Sequence to fold (349 residues):
Amino acid sequence: MAIVNEAVLKQKLKTIGGNVYILFGNDGYLKHTYAKKIGSACAEEDDIFNYQKFSGDCDLQDVYDAVLQFPMMSDKKFVLLTDYDFESAAKSDFEKLCTILAETPDSCVFVLLFDALQITAKKNTKLNKLVATAEKNNGIAACLDHRTLPELVKMLTNGATKRGCRFDSAAAKYLVETAGEDINTLKNELEKLCAYVNKGEITKQTVDLVCAKTVEASVYNLSKQIVECNLQNALKLLDELFFLKVEPIIILSTISGFYVDMYRAFLGKDRGLQSDTIASDFGYFGREFVIRNAIADAKRFDANKFNLSFEFLRAADKALKSFSSNPRIILEQLIVKLSYIVVKGEGLD
Fold:
């Protein structure tokens, strides 16, 4: 069984024409883009005879009939099935799905797309069977996850150039770190940035001025201020997050994640490992920049400071889940205590 990535899928679409595709992964934009690209090579989307779509609650017999039906005044027809929950399906329905994959004729291209329904490839026996069945019928299974940071940076800088603007790689990287890895979001932010600079240069300052930050990015900045002992800015950012009605438990969870990143970086460097190795060992694929940033932030820490910090993070988590105290006070006190640990190396009661 071979599940390919975006680069391999893109190349295969140029050189060979499969007639069965299984598309899944965590990047909705890529999944829809490739499903549409595959479909448009067969028929126009408004061609009711040769371009048929089915949702996950359909009768698989209807899908099977559509796949076997000859195209009307065309060489190919296209059939798309989205979000069919094969993992929860009855055995007979799962076998029917396998039959569709196995018997899709050369006159049809069948795409099994998982959009809202998230599929995990690891140790997924049923998915393995679907993929193996598809492969026997000239099929391709592709996991379309978020692009890596260098790929996203290249997409943004090239996109800016096409629009007559200049987008420095460092500023493009900053946009990814603050707006997230979703391609749809990044393309929308790029349009806004190019319209704002009007064929000028896009800088980090422009990104801060024009682009919306994800909640994760905002809390990441809050965490940075804590580590840098800038209490005024940290409390100001906390105020903004409460104004945006971000759940306190989400704020705490993201701060805790920031500390976990730093601790992993600390352990890796303590063992003499390079940043890319640490990122690989802890599964930061495509997000190696998180570890590189964490290494810089963790320089202020030793094992004792981490132990104390995690102790206060656990206490804050317990307090928030008890609903007995004001969440804002809990988080404000936590920010002060964490900053005190960085400076003094000891806890603050």
In short: Strands lie at 3-4, 20-24, 51-54, 77-82, 108-113, 139-143, 166-167, 201-202.
